[in-house]
Design goal:
alpha/beta; 2-enoyl-CoA Hydratase, Chain A, domain 1; Lyase 2-enoyl-coa Hydratase, Chain  A, domain 2; 2 domains; 4-stranded mixed beta sheet; 10 strands
Length: 254
């Protein structure tokens, strides 16, 4: 249901329900939340990739889970919210490798990640309004912060299918890679991130979260505080030394 593989500092979490385009069940969501929690504790993990098996990234909620009964939405969404909150608070870069369709809560998951790379065959659909629901799993928080209010409202109400190139033009994804080479290119991208100063990346993530609801004065103060932390790090010392010696730095994430 959820496959895990750690290599070269990159933990890959693969949603493995290809027969349903990796649609979410409570069990899958809980497994993903637990894996993200463990990733935060494991010093060998320098970056996390979330991707899907088969043709899809995730088609969102598996509606068969509710067949024959009326869902208790607020209770069920706790499974999703645990995942989104774990990504938001994880002090390591989280990359969505969108290999196919990302729809509904599948798109919410991708948007919650720090970076998104997409296969040229990927398709993005907000989807909720198509079944007369409102967005959840943080989509109304992340989407307007990426594309702005008016475009977010359009995407959420009309729910068009976006190609990978259209998503790139809107800033929904950071890179688009050819379908045939997607797995290889996405891994190389993640490994490049993992080899960087991941301690600094973690604090950049905190700064960006803070800036979303802070005054300029508060951000300036928080930047100064964070700069004190990074200025004392091993990676900063290595970065300066590498610059002086005119060589590539070897960061350790410390």
């Amino acid at each position: 249901m959820l496959q895990q593989a750690l290599e070269n500092g990159v933990l890959t979490l693969t949603l493995n329900r290809p027969e349903s385009l990796n649609a979410f069940t409570s069990e899958l969501l809980d497994a993903l939340a637990d894996a993200l929690k463990e990733a935060g504790k494991n010093e060998a993990v320098r970056a996390v990739v979330i991707t899907g098996a088969g043709r899809g990234f995730s088609a969102g909620q598996d509606l068969k889970e509710f067949q024959g009964r009326e869902p208790a939405f607020r209770q069920h969404l706790r499974h999703y919210n645990r995942v989104i909150e774990r990504i938001a608070t994880l002090d390591k870069p989280v990359i969505a490798a969108v290999n196919g369709v990302a729809a509904g809560a599948g798109l919410s998951l991708a948007l919650a990640c720090d970076l998104r790379v997409a296969s040229s065959a990927a398709v993005f659909i907000t989807a909720f309004s198509r079944i007369a629901l409102v967005p959840d799993s943080g989509m109304t928080y992340t989407l307007p912060r990426i594309v702005g209010y008016a475009k977010a409202y359009e995407l959420l109400t009309l729910s068009p299918k976006l190609s990978a190139e259209e998503a790139l033009a809107l800033g929904l994804v950071n890179r688009v890679f050819p379908e045939a080479a997607f797995a290889e290119k996405a891994r190389a991208f993640a490994e490049e991130i993992a080899q960087g100063p991941t301690k600094s990346y973690a604090l950049i993530k905190r700064l960006l979260k803070k800036s979303a609801a802070a005054t300029l004065e508060e951000v300036l103060e928080y930047e100064a505080y964070m700069q004190e932390l990074t200025g004392r790090s091993e990676d900063h010392k290595e970065g300066v030394q590498a610059f002086l010696e005119k060589r590539a730095p070897e960061f350790k994430g410390r």
